[in-house]
Amino acid sequence: MSADTATTSVTTAGFTQRLAPEVYDRIQQRILPLLEREGLEAILTDDPEDVSYLSGFFHHPGERPVAVLLDAAGRAVLLVPELERQHAEEQRSRAEIVTFAEYPGLENPFAPLARAAGALRGRVGVTTQVTQHRLAMLQAAFDAVDWVPTELVTRARYVKLPEEVEQHREAARITDVMLQAGVDLIREAIDEGRPLPTEADLAGHVGRTGIGIMYGEHRDVVVISFLAGGLVYAGANSAIPHGLPSGYRLRDGDTFMLSLGAAVGGRFVEGERTFVLGSPTPEQRRYHDTVRDAQAEGSRAIAPGVRCAESNARCLAVIRDAGLGQYLRHRQGHGIGLGMHEPPWLEDGDPTPLEAGMIVSNEPGIYIPGHAGYRISDSMLVTASGSEPLTRFPRSLDDCVIPL
Description:
The chain has helices spanning 21-37, 48-55, 85-90, 111-117, 132-141, 152-156, 162-192, 199-217, 282-301, 308-321, and strands spanning 10-11, 14-16, 42-45, 67-71, 76-81, 96-100, 122-127, 145-150, 218-219, 228-234, 255-264, 267-277, 333-335, 342-346, 359-362, 365-368, 372-375, 378-382, 387-389, 401-402. By secondary structure, it is of the alpha/beta class. The strands form 6 sheets. It has a 6-stranded mixed sheet, with helices on both faces. Strands 10-11-12-20 form a 4-stranded mixed sheet.
C-alpha cells in the first residue's frame, strides 16, 4: 500500500472515527522536511488542533499545558498533566507520553518535557498561537533553545490525507441529514396543524439528530466541544451573519437559515441553506437566486492553482454585479479541517494558491437589515481538476421553499 493510500474507516461494526496509528506516522513524516526547510531542530505546539493532528490526542484545553514536541529525527513527545495520562494512552496517542504533576505546581510544567528532549538546543519552532505566559515557561525550561514563531504545522494541515477526507465526507453526510431533519420538523408541524417550531426548537432537533447518528452508527466517537448542530435563524434575525438561535417562532413568509455542521474524528464540515416558508416574493427570489449564482461561480473558481483572493473576487463579483454589493458582510469562505474556521482564507488578502486535497467553505451571503439574510454554503474538496461539494443538499430556491 502506498503512503497516500487510504486505510478504510468502515468496519463490520460501523464507521470508526479514530485514524489508524500509522496515519499519524505519515503526518509526522510530513513535518520533517518542513523543519529542515526552516532550519529548525524541532517544533513545539500547544495548540489543541495541532496536538490532535500530530498525535491523535483530543482533549478539552484548559490551564494545564498539553503540548507536542517533534524533533528533526522524527521523535514525537506528548506532554500532558498526570490526570490526562490514561486518557492519552486510551486514545493510542502516537507519541512518547511524559507528564507533569499539577498546575501551577512546584515545578515548571514544561520541565519534564525539557528532560525528555535531552540536549535540545538551537532554533526550535513554536506555534504563533502560544500565549506569552506559556512562552515564558518554555524559555525557563529550555535554556539552550531559541524559540522561533512558525505556522509550519498550520500549513501542513492545509492538504488532507485520504483518511482525513473520508472523515470529512462522513461529516458531510451527517450534515445533509440534519438539514433534511430541520425541514422535516417544519413540514410535520404544518401537516399536523401544530405551531411552527422556534429557532431554538430547530437547533435542538438537528443537533440531536446528528449526534444520534454518530453514537448509533460510529465506533470510537471523538468527542470535541462541537459534534453536530449549528445556528438557526429566521426573518430579521437571519440578517445577523452569526446570530444565535432564539425563541422566535417561524411564521408564514419568513426567510430562514439552517447553518449546520458536524465533526467526525474531530474534522469539520459545514453546510448551510436558506429557505422560504410559504410563497416567495419577487424580492426573496431575487436575493436567493443572486446568492445561488454567486455560490455556483464560487464553486467554479475553487480549483488547483487559483489563488484564494481570486476565487473570492470571482464569487463576490456576482453579487456586486447584481447591484446587491451593499449587503455583503464577509468573504467567500475559509479552510476547514480540525478547525471549523482555519486558513487558508478565501478573501482578498490571502494569495495562497489552492491545492488538491484542501477543503474550503464556499459560502457567499447577503444580509438585508430588517428583512433577512441569504447564505448558501458547501464544504468543497479541491480536486485535481476543480472541486467537489461534500455537502449535497439541494441549493435552488425551488428546492428550498416549504409551502404552507
